[in-house]
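Intended use. Records like the one below are meant for learning the mapping from a protein sequence to its folded structure. Do not use them to infer anything beyond what is encoded.
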Amino acid sequence: MTTAKAQQAGISLSIDKTKMFMTKVELEEIKLVGLALKAKTSNINEQSSIDCGNLWQEFEKGKYAEKIPNKLTDEILAVYHQYEGDYTEPFSYFIGCKVKADTEVPAGLETLTIAKGIYQKINAKGKIFICRRRLYMFAYALRMYFSCA
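Structure written out for the chain above:
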């Protein structure tokens, strides 16, 4: 079964012991608070693995999930957005938590709004590094958001 057919059917995939479960979901507008890369990254020479990995380390080491006020859940979302083309082109990356719409952003954190729409949600369980790296190749083509547990 192709990745596209699996996504349409909501079928789970397993890549290098990382379990990924994909589901089509309709979302209302979501406000996130968290950390963003300072500049776009790309998959050339695996730069995105370094940049996104460093952002995850900063997020975890700084215990930013604990510093985010008015969280709606304990879920941490990783958002790939503002692609300049296909998966080989630069893109932006954000890690954060869903918050109430009127939440003020604490110093040192940023906000990102995910527009209302239909998305592919990927729940990934396993090594987050593998999860991120393997998903680059098809994430750019779909409206997705990621929940890594």
